[in-house]
From TrEMBL:
Domain Major facilitator superfamily (MFS) profile: 21-438
Name of the featured protein: MFS transporter
InterPro entries assigned to the protein according to its UniProt record, in alphabetical order: MFS_dom, MFS_sugar_transport-like, MFS_trans_sf, Sugar_transporter_CS
Compartments where located: Cell membrane
PROSITE patterns: MFS, SUGAR_TRANSPORT_1, SUGAR_TRANSPORT_2
Transmembrane segments: 21-47, 59-78, 87-104, 116-133, 145-167, 173-190, 260-280, 292-316, 323-345, 351-371, 383-407, 413-434
Amino acid sequence: MMTGDQVVQGLPWKWRAQGTIFLIGGLGFLFDAWDVTLNAFLIPLVAEEWGLSLAERGWVGTANLIGMAVGAFGWGAIADVVGRKKAFSLTLLMFSVFTVAGALSPDFVTFCVFRFLAGVGLGGCIPVDFALVGEFTPAKYRGRVLAAMDGFWPLGATLCGIVSAALLPFDNWRLLLLTMVLPGLLLFWVRRSVPESPMFLVLRGRQAEAKQVIDDLVTRTGAPKTEWRLPDPQTAPRLSPGTMFKQLKEIWRFDPRRTAALWLLFLAVFLLYYGAVTWLPSILKQQGLGTYAAFMVTTLTVAVGMVSALIAAWLVDVFGRKWVIGVSAPLAAVALVMFALQLNVETSAKVWITLYGLLIQIAIPALYAFAPELYPTELRASGFGWASTVSRVGAGLVPVLFGALLWPHLGLPLTFAVIGGVVVLAVVAMAVAIPETKLQPLRVSVPS
């Protein structure tokens, strides 16, 4: 007799069932992209108001990204203890409250503190949302669904760029922050109606709730009803700081080679992404472009990711997750180095930065589809969360290191080449240490 998690993973995929969860989860990812991309547009505006040095400007992005790093492992661990649904809603609520506070900041230090706290809230969206959507999605469609979910990232980044450019005549960076809050609060309210992950309920032995969610999924997808049973439940750990670090220990105990390679891969890919996007408006302004033009070129660079996500959604189920990441990420690094080398040739520079945007945003959806599949249910959100934390910490240091050390002393081409070398190293580690997960069922529990 099949278990409840096997029933869920064998269902057909329908828009009126799993598709609703996909859309609601994707909108949270949209806000994550909007907020991260907003750092690039805030840097020149905040610097002008408070007279910041190049090194000080980097703290605009660093405070926010480090907050997201804390939120990624914190909310990932919370979701594995109290459930996906509660964490699913509270991440956006925390983000909205501290974004309003950031918009009211009287000085730069206070502003950075509130950007950090808003990041803590929003940092949980990626691990929690991908864990929830992945656990509702049948194995046959999971790769393309999780990769397609990343299409909300360039959509959010593009909306950020369009809105930021449209609000430039008001010359008020505080308005840029406040534009995100109302839709964020509306999405928080919508998320309250999302059911708990059936795989989480199965794992915790919440039989009545699990049966209700699974039977509803079966009905809404039109699948034939069959007999199924609940596997033996596991004792839910109590939420505490100790629990979070115990989960970290379990993640490494589960497969240390896999975890080390995944962390390096996350770090390298997002160093490559954030290192370019966060500073792109400032780089372009230094080349003589006006603020509006710099904003729009950055917007187009991230907007191409909507095409990338569709390409990635197809590629991951045809060639597998590893091949897509292993080819697209190093090629993105090459394109970024070429952009830096030909920065003074306007047409060539635009071609290379567009190609970079296309390639890096093929690698990221494939990576996000890959990561949740590498851990069992009890470690899925926290495993993804800790990997995301590593990437956010590394990326969080990029704005300061880039502005204070790398760019001034090495120059742009060599700076991007060094990051590209880290990407190649990470891809080699992935090839050796991480198995392909294409069309493989999700693991429910850690072997005893």
